[in-house]
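Researcher: If only I could read backbone structure tokens as easily as an amino acid sequence. Walk me, if you will, through where the backbone shape changes along the chain. I have put the entry right below:
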Amino acid sequence: MLKVINVVGARPNFMKVAPIVAAMKRREREFTPLVVHTGQHYDAAMSDAFFADLDLPEPDVYLGVGSASHAAQTAAVMERFEPVLNKEKPDWVLVVGDVNSTLACALVCVKLGVKVAHVEAGLRSRDRTMPEEINRLLTDQIADLLFTPSADADQNLIAEGIPAERIRLVGNVMIDSLYKHLERARRSQIKNQLGLTQNSYAVLTLHRPSNVDDPATFGRILEALESISDRLPIVFPVHPRTRKTIAELGFGERFEKANGLRLIDPLGYLDFLSLYSGARLVLTDSGGIQEETSVLGIPCLTLRDNTERPITQTLGTNKIVGTDPDKIVAADTAALDETAKPTVSIPLWDGHTAERIVAALG
């Protein structure tokens, strides 16, 4: 019987851990899964909604770290996670993604000699100004087992000197959650509540500090959104931090005057999946949405100058457009003028990644 601690720190982690925990529970004679929620990002209503939407059991341990600077948050996770390891003595700790909790818990494991596996290993943006890139690089160097979503991630790890025997190409576990919950999401009433019809709107997500904290950059993006929303309504579930920044930068009036740009509160997993899966177009600076829209065949414009998920460009529907308003609008026009829905097939993005991960651990 293997005891495995599964660490979640932020909402994107929930979609990756939920199918893994479910796969372990299906092999209950072989695995005892525990869920540790660091509380790195925590809003009671949103967190509860995500756990319920994803059928993820309530955390066995909640560390309650909360928001702080990168250094303070990483240190707090390490300090609070160490006693959990000492008490539980797991056979494996499984960390996912690239948030501060990912690196912090991996570091504690290495110091205490506990085996750690990294899900979504090998992704690289080549941009070390992104905190996530540093978390990815360091976690991959110290993890015992690296679960990669695509062949390019394997190549990145090999180029960095990671031994091939530590690498397992398993596919994209977030797509497991998407396939499992897509039909449930389609029963959501969110589009009816917002008065939307299928393929008649765009969805926007925007939260990265490099985009929303700099008034010049945010202003350029907003200029593009004002133009696009004249042609296609844009629904914008606003991260609380982004909403605060909009007010602080004095952009509130511009958002109000853009009639086709609609700001709404953040959504739970199923409602958000329902919303963007019915969109004509998605604009984002997020990572995971690039993958999900590719699988669903929805055009995606990424408002960044790079991506750690290049397969979404080569085999998917993603286009990197940066923050120049002319380029964003031109890419939007090109996407909307396409009539046929793209056919996308990415190896191992098949809904069975969690099973491959659990098999490798066993």
